[in-house]
Design brief:
Length: about 600
């Protein structure tokens, strides 16, 4: 991090010592963050507030116009375009208008060239000293490697993004209405360091069921470098900062669906291609596109190729949950299989003991798991089940199995051992907020960092279900986590009339019988979600299963373990690195072939 900051710092010093005729002042711009003023409107107002707020303020510029790159000659085209150093002039505003910091804008100082030069020369050493003190005072973590212990949580620590510079564009709210022309602002990112100008491919990384805080430095980045591709990532509507409304009440969620999200991708793809053409001073040119996604966004990647085959040369569908499942008993069965006989037995006995204690002393039991505010017992049991599954799903089986098997052999208290694991790993290292298992908490309509849980439950309760219910026998999780529990939760959190129409979803997309082409599926052998993915292979729809002890969710992209993030999706920590390498080689070959066919035939061009 210090290495990354130092060049910018030195450049600033050079500019101070050798000032140009134009002096630039840097200051924050708050009007671009309309959510700062959501309190000015009623939560029930269904107007497109984000766009409206920006348009009403004459001192604000639209987000999509905030970054204007100037190309002065063919020589600096590549560096300007790749490094994205835009300049923009923003109208003057009062200090009170600039209290919120989201973006930094360049504003030309109102000084004559000779005045600017003289002022900078007179005060440059004072400014240099101030900047140096600022660097050492404000970046101790950078200098000494001190990172807050809970920095990871569910988020990625700094330095693990290829970029997290935010861009915005205006997205259509309802793609299926001829009369509703409202728009909202959708967040996206671009990384162009590997881009082979002007005809390199564009790799689009689809945002999933959570905030998109940047383009992650995983194996997709390695592929982008290999193919000379630009990387762009679009945040899923409603998640993160791409919310159309300032309230997440149920009636405002009617535009949250996979169908709307796919149309978002199509509109964005056209917008970005046109924007790229404008930057490169060309018209009607088309770069070859390839789509990437994992888990739910892996399903979106497959579905996009199915529904919009002319807009992408192909798709990678990593751990893609393309099959909507009402009672997803296979999920729990896979946990038992991945755990192995000893660990499975220990977990099953722990579940039984927890159920017994829950009947006699629920308050004390829940408190031992830091979950005393989960009043509904089934919410607590769902938390207990999820805590075990993440270890297998994300390539860390020993984190739960080793202490539980050892405790069972030693005759130690299994519940206490499991509570320690839940608090240290599931809540501590993995960063789960226990409150998100509380149905009353899920009713919250205010937008905050935990809103993703409510949003994903809405998609679960309306489209895909994936109800992780206990099998009728030999289950790891409590039998009380059943279909009724899930349906009651949907009704309690979102109201009457909410029901997951999985048949309609599978009819629309095809489930595991998806009839698309040029989609490569990849799954990890220990991932419980693979049973909702396509695991049979065909020439047009190749499917690979990476088999190894710690190969879980999205191993082909994330490496091992799958969480926390491994830079570039490194495979060295997988129990069988060769198995991962072979599948990645196959994926690369498919991308190479489909890109070449796309370029040769032009079939995937508008």
């Amino acid at each position: 991090m210090f290495i990354l900051i130092l060049p910018s710092y030195l450049i600033s010093i050079v500019r101070l010592v050798h000032p140009s005729s134009d002096a630039y002042l840097i200051r924050p711009s708050d009007c671009l963050q309309a959510l700062d003023h959501v309190g000015d409107k009623s939560d029930s107002d269904e107007t497109d507030y984000l766009i409206q707020n920006a348009n009403e303020n004459e001192n604000c510029i639209p987000r999509e116009k905030e970054r204007t790159t100037h190309f002065e000659s063919p020589t600096n085209l590549a560096s300007a375009f790749l490094k994205q150093h835009p300049t923009a002039t923003i109208p003057s505003r009062s200090k009170s208008e600039c209290d919120s910091v989201e973006f930094l804008k360049g504003k030309k100082a109102k000084l004559k060239p000779e005045e600017a030069s003289m002022a900078m020369k007179q005060h440059r050493w004072l400014i240099i000293t101030a900047l140096t003190l600022f660097l050492f005072m404000c970046f101790p973590a950078v200098l000494y490697g001190v990172v807050p212990p809970r920095m990871l949580l569910n988020k990625l620590s700094e330095g693990k993004y290829l970029t997290n510079n935010v861009l915005w564009f205006n997205q259509t709210l309802d793609h299926f209405s001829a009369y509703d022309h409202r728009q909202f602002q959708q967040r996206y990112y671009e990384f162009l360091d590997y881009f082979r100008i002007p005809d390199g491919p564009i790799f689009l990384v689809i945002g999933g069921e959570g905030p998109d805080n940047g383009i992650v430095n995983d194996y997709v980045g390695v592929l982008a470098k290999k193919f000379g591709a630009a990387l762009v990532s679009l945040e899923h509507r409603y998640y993160g900062k791409s919310s159309p409304f300032n309230s997440l009440e149920t009636k405002n969620l009617k535009y949250l669906s996979s169908k709307q999200a796919l149309s978002d991708l199509a509109v964005f793809r056209q917008y970005y291609q046109n924007s790229l053409n404008a930057k490169l001073n060309r018209t009607k040119a088309e770069n070859p596109w390839f789509f990437f996604g994992g888990s739910y966004s892996g399903a979106l990647s497959a579905w996009f190729r199915l529904k919009f085959p002319h807009l992408t040369c192909g798709s990678l569908a990593s751990s893609a949950v393309v099959l909507a499942v009402y009672n997803f008993t296979e999920y729990d069965r896979q946990i038992g299989e991945s755990a192995g006989a000893e660990c499975k037995a220990a977990l099953q006995e722990t579940t039984q003991l927890i159920e017994q204690k829950l009947a006699t002393n629920a308050k004390e039991l829940k408190a031992s798991f830091n979950a005393d505010y989960l009043e509904i017992d089934e919410d607590f049991l769902y938390l207990i089940a999820d805590a075990a599954t993440v270890a297998f799903q994300y390539g860390n089986p020993d984190r739960v199995c080793k202490p539980m098997v050892e405790a069972k052999k030693a005759g130690e208290d299994l519940v206490d051992t499991y509570a320690k694991y839940v608090k240290e790993y599931f809540i501590g290292t993995f960063g789960v907020n226990v409150q998100t298992y509380d149905q009353e908490y899920l009713k919250k309509t205010a937008i905050d960092e935990d809103s993703s849980t409510r949003l994903w439950w809405f998609q679960v309760c309306t489209e895909v279900a994936y109800f992780q219910v206990a099998p009728s026998n030999d289950s790891v999780r409590s039998s009380k986590v059943d279909t009724k529990y899930h349906l009651d939760l949907c009704k309690n959190v979102f109201g009457e009339g909410i029901f997951p129409d999985v048949d309609a979803t599978n009819l629309y997309y095809g489930g595991t019988k998806i009839a698309g082409s040029k989609i490569v599926f990849a799954n990890g052998s220990q991932d419980p979600w693979r049973h909702a993915s396509k695991q049979t292979s065909s020439p047009d729809l190749p499917s690979y299963t990476i088999t190894c002890y710690n190969c879980g969710h999205c191993t082909d992209i994330k490496g091992c373990p799958q969480s926390p993030l491994v830079l570039e999706g490194n495979e060295k920590n997988c129990s069988s690195p060769d198995a991962v390498h072979k599948v990645r080689q196959k994926i690369s070959e498919h991308i190479d072939l489909w890109l070449s066919e796309c370029i040769d035939t032009g079939k995937s061009f508008i």
